[in-house]
Amino acid sequence: MHYTSETIERAVDMFASLPSIGRKTAQRLVYHILRTDKTYADNFSNAILALKEKVLFCEQCFNYSEVSPCPICSSNKRNGGIICVVADPNDVLAIEKTNEFNGKYHVLHGILNPLEGVTANDLKIKELIARLTNIDEVILAINPSVEGEVTIQYLAKMITPLNIKVSRIASGIPIGSAIEYSDEATLARALEARIAI
After folding, report:
1. pTM of the entire structure?
2. 112 near 120, Cβ under 8 Å?
């Protein structure tokens, strides 16, 4: 599609490059921004720049934070003997909404996917194994997909010889769905009824 402005076309291309944003939605977003005042556009662009300038990885759990260690890792109120392993930072937010988990987290930043070339070296698995000192339990809260199952089995094989209890969240989250889209009650039930591997 050719726009009357190269600037509009570039903006549509940038929005369309975001996950799950098609060209029509990108076009609507660009036109929305054009209809707003300059202050809104300045605030919007400053928020994006601040993300890149201020947000970093927590040195312990690899979640996003503005400080390292993050507030969860540095909290004395959290149970440091339990680590919940998740694939993405969105999963931490979803689990935190349940108010059922009081341990700490480890974010892998993906799951094993040999067909797409994602190997253990591409994930924060070495960092997880390095953290497993004085740990009582590792909960694998990974989406129940084929790739998720591969990741769960891989991690279980690495952690079990360390004499640490390894569990996974229980069913309640359907195969093929994502943790971040599950409601709080389903996630709470899945955490509560986790099973040993």
Report:
1. 0.80
2. yes
H or E stretch covering 13: helix 6-16
**Distance of alpha carbon 112 from alpha carbon 150, whole angstroms:** 7
- Paired residues of 168 in beta bridges: 140, 195
Q: What percent of the chain has pLDDT over 90?
A: 77
Q: Which architecture, in CATH terms, is 6-54?
A: Orthogonal Bundle (1.10)
**Domain chopping of the chain, boundaries:** 6-54, 64-196
Residues 136, 124 contacting (CB under 8 angstroms): no
Interval 153-162: pLDDT, tens: 999 999 999 9
State the residue for tokens 């937010």: 93
Helix (H, G, I), strand (E, B) or coil at 111: coil
pLDDT at 44 over 70: yes
Residue 24: pLDDT over 80: yes
CATH class of the domain comprising 64-196: alpha beta
Contacts of 61 (CB under 8 A, 6+ apart): 69, 70, 72, 73, 104, 105, 106, 107
Query: Which residue pairs from 70-74 have beta carbons closer than 8 angstroms and sit at least 24 positions apart in sequence?
Result: 72/104, 72/105, 73/104
